[in-house]
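so im writing up the methods section and need the Helix-turn-helix domain-containing protein record in one place, dumping it here so i stop losing it
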Amino acid sequence: MAPQWCTKMAPSFANIFMGNLEKEFLSRQNLKPHTWLRFIDDIFMIWTHGEANLKLFIDDINSFHHTIKFTADFSGHGVHFLDTTVTLQNGSLKTDLFNKPTNKHNYLLPSSCHPRHCTRNIPYSQALRIRRICSSEVDFDSRTKELSQHLLNRQYFRGTIENAIKKAKSKPRTETLTYKTRQTSSKRVPLVTEFHPGLPPLANIIQKNFHLLQGTERLKSVSQNYLSSLLKDPATYGIS
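--- predicted struct ---
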């Protein structure tokens, strides 16, 4: 029985299955890829044994499992992998942003009924993504110029966009590529409520009045953990 892809466990299930499949397949190959990197079912590979052997390798992997089949796009110059274009230039790999032709760049409108930080962070997060991907400063400047126009088309303020791009550019690319482990507190007690644009700043209210929960020993024992506010999406109603 195959899992529905809307379930949370589906990507993990696919990862486990593909991980086992690739381990078994590669262990049986005499000629192996120089580099083999996989994201769920998308694979980036560097092959150094010639095109004829590469085609045999692709035929082998497509006959290894009766239902799992691969399509291959290979080139001696460059390929697209996920949102990245990888090219070989003077013996070195260069990376640039890749946008599929179907990408409409329909970023969340600033006027959308979402917490303000959601739309406020979009320009910076997108600029930071480009900073990670583009190995060339020229490509970074070109791609962020395109990003700026897409965001302007979605009614973002020019000043917000320019500040976000400037902030992303100020970060060394090596720093953006360093994996950071998010520190989470197990003592956090969430106050979950439904978002509405008319809500007051709950985090400020909690911080300002938190001392009231320390008034008695009983309340202090209950509220000793950190209290934070979490906003969930309101119900969506369709009109027919």
